[in-house]
Amino acid sequence: MSGFRSACIFTTLASFVLLMPAKSEAAGVTARAKFSFDALADCEQPSVKDFPVHAEGTGELSTDRTATLDMQSNIEGHTQYTAKLGAKPTEAAGGSAALRVAGKHTLKAIREYPNNYIIVYMTVIGNACSLRIENRLKPGKRQYAFQGKSGTALCSKPRIVRSECTPY
C-alpha cells in the first residue's frame, strides 16, 4: 500500500503543488485557504480496491509569488512544501510539478507522472473557495502511474469523492 503514498501526493496537489520543503520567509500573504479532500483508488499494482485517501491542511500565496502548503494525511503524515508561482516545473518524485496563474483568482497546479497529469484549480474570491481536480492520461497510456516510496503504483483513474476549501 506504500504505492498509495503517491495517491496522497496527487491529492496534495489539490490545493497547491509539491516542490520542496518549506522555509519561513517574511512576505505578505495575499490569499489563504483551508482544504480537505477524500479520494478512492483502485490499483492493479499493488492489488487494492477502494483504498481511501484523506488529507487536510492550509495553503497560502504570498506577495513574493511563493505558495506554501501545510498538510496532514493518512498516507504521508505531516508535510510542508513551497513553490514559486510561474517558475519552471521542478523535479518531483516520478515526474515534475509546477504552479501557474489560471485566472484573476485561480491557481493551477500541474503534477506530471510518467503516464499522466493531475491538474488542480483552486479559486479564491472573497469568502468563497472552490477546488477542481482533473486527472488526464498521456496519449497512448491506459493506466495512471503514481510514485511512492516503494515504487510505482499502477491504478485506474482516481476518484475524488469529496473536496472542499475555505478562505481564512
Structure report:
By secondary structure, the protein is mainly β. Helix content is 5%, strand content 63%. It has one domain (2-167): Lipocalin. Strand 5 and strand 6 form a beta hairpin. The longest helix is centred in the first third of the chain and has 8 residues, at 5-12. It is globular and about 45 Å long. The chain starts with a helix and ends with a strand.
Keywords summarizing the entry:
mainly beta; 5-stranded antiparallel beta sheet; 168 residues; 7-stranded antiparallel beta sheet; Lipocalin; disordered N terminus; globular; 12 strands
Biggest sheet architecture: 7 strands, antiparallel
Number of domains: 1
Question: Distance N terminus to C terminus?
Answer: 34 Å
CATH topology: Lipocalin
Radius of gyration: 15 Å
What is the helical fraction, as a range of percent?
under 10%
Q: Characterize the overall form.
A: globular
CATH architecture: Beta Barrel
Q: Kindly provide the name of the CATH class.
A: Mainly Beta
**Number of E-state strands:** 12
Query: How much of the sequence is in beta strands?
Result: over 45%
* DSSP summary: helix tally: 1
Mean pLDDT: 77
Give start-end ranges of low-pLDDT stretches. 1-26
User: What structural class should be given to the helix and strand makeup?
Assistant: mainly beta
Order of helices and strands: HEEEEEEEEEEEE
